[in-house]
Structure formats: C-alpha cells, structure tokens
Amino acid sequence: QVQLVQSGAEVKKPGASVKVSCKTSGYTFINNYVHWVRQAPGQGLEWMGIINPKSGGTNYAQRFQGRVTLTRDTSTSAVYMELSSLRSDDTAVYFCARDTLSTRLPASRPGARLDFWGQGTLVAVSS
Amino acid sequence: DIQMTQSPPSLSAFVGDRVTITCRASQSVSIYLNWYQQRLGKAPQLLIYSASNLQDGVPSRFSGSGSGTDFTLTISSLQPEDFATYSCQQSHTTPWTFGQGTKVEI
C-alpha cells in the first residue's frame, strides 16, 4: 500500500533552517510528483511547491521562492523539504503528498490531485 | 494567484442532516477543483476530484458539483465520522490554492 512517512517534529530558532524528510513506499517513486503543503495553527492549507522525483525538477510558490528547496533521493525513494531563514510565522505542520499526475506530464498541467499524504511534521520556530 | 473562498466558515449539524458547502474561485478553474476532508490532528484526505468525481473508497453520500467559479460539496446524510474540516483546492493554475476550510461540527 502507498505510504508517505515523514520525519519527526522540530524546534528551531528564528533565522535557522529546517529539513523535513518524506519517505515513500508502495508505488514506483519516479512515476508521481510529490507536493509540499503546510498548515499554520488554526489556518488553512498552503501549497509550497512540487518536485518531479524522476528529473528532480521543482516549482515553488512565489512567496517561498528563495527560501525553500525540494530535493529527492531516488535510491531511498525519499523527498526532502528544506526551509531557510525561519521566522515565527513559519510555525506550522508541514505535509508531503503524492500527486496522481504522472511525471510524464508537465507539473503545471491542470488536474493535479493529492491522493496520499504523509502524517505531517510540526516545525515550531521560537526564540 | 487564484483566491478560493469557502462558505460558511463553520456550521453545526446533526447526524442524518444534508449538508452543503460552497467554494468560489476568483477566476475560472474549469472543472479542476478538488475537495479534502481533514479530521482533527490528521492529514487531509481526498474526497472529490475534478469537481464531481468520487475518489476510490469514499462513501457515496459525498458528492460534488460545479464548474467555472462556483462549486458545491454535499453530504447527503451526515454520519458521526463526517464531523471534520472540509477544504477545496484548485488545480487549474499554479500555485495551487486552497480555501480556508469549513468546519462541520455538532
């Protein structure tokens, strides 16, 4: 069965960086895009970016451009999200999620949907 | 960015009630609108994709409709396990954007 398992909670100081892992299993890793979505306390979901596990190509939301980096390791079927220059308003639960969209198609093609999600990783930023 | 506005932000209902949640996009997203359910402290789960298609394993009491800018999620007969937050998401244009969520409570 498809599973996405994320790394544990993190506490960081303002200005630091955090790297969250998302280990996938149960499907062919390079066949599906993976997204990252975050949710601040009591707030809605916010899309951060997408990675093509086959090529390593990425697309980031404008507001995170320059601060977020998505990478992947095909040998372990894992994707990583690194967020730098952390601020208190980056405190949130961060989710990875698999897209049904095949990596044979462009990432920006309409119709993406997130069918399997990781359990979420709380990142708390506090001095 | 395309703004997604849900209404109402929250609602109270009883088991067995018919519940309707609406989602409006700031510009047309065609049929590229998904609905997710999120129980407290859990990850979202895909319910409906492309406006009206039921995701595998989702009970048939859930249904979706709409196109362009206006969409609806309907729960025909609310069950105890349906008390959760529901969010819409457009996948027409990057960046993908979500509504703020509708909390369904007793």
Secondary structure blueprint with pairings:
The complex is a heterodimer of chains A (127) and B (106).
Chain A: E1 3-6, E2 10-12, E3 18-25, E4 32-39, E5 45-51, E6 58-60, E7 68-73, E8 78-83, E9 92-102, E10 114-117, E11 121-125
Parallel strand pairs in A: 2-11
Antiparallel strand pairs in A: 1-3, 3-8, 4-5, 4-9, 5-6, 7-8, 9-10, 9-11
Chain B: E1 4-7, E2 10-12, E3 19-25, E4 33-38, E5 45-49, E6 53-54, E7 62-67, E8 70-75, E9 85-90, E10 97-98, E11 102-105
Parallel strand pairs in B: 2-11
Antiparallel strand pairs in B: 1-3, 3-8, 4-5, 4-9, 5-6, 7-8, 9-10, 9-11
What can be said about this structure in brief?
Chain A is mostly beta strands. Helices cover 0% and strands 51% of the residues of chain A.
State the share of residues found in helices of chain B, binned by percent: under 10%
Structural class label of chain B: mainly beta
Oligomerization state: heterodimer
Low-pLDDT parts of chain A are none
Tally of helical runs of chain B: 0
Give the % helix of chain A.
under 10%
Shape of chain A: globular
Principal-axes geometry of chain B comes out as globular
First and last CA, distance of chain B = 34 Å
- Strand segment count of chain B: 11
Q: Count every helix of chain A, treating DSSP H or I runs of 4 or more residues as helices.
A: 0
| Unreliable runs of chain B | none
- Gap between N and C termini of chain A: 40 Å
Identify the biggest protein-protein contact and residues per side. A-B, 26 and 26 residues
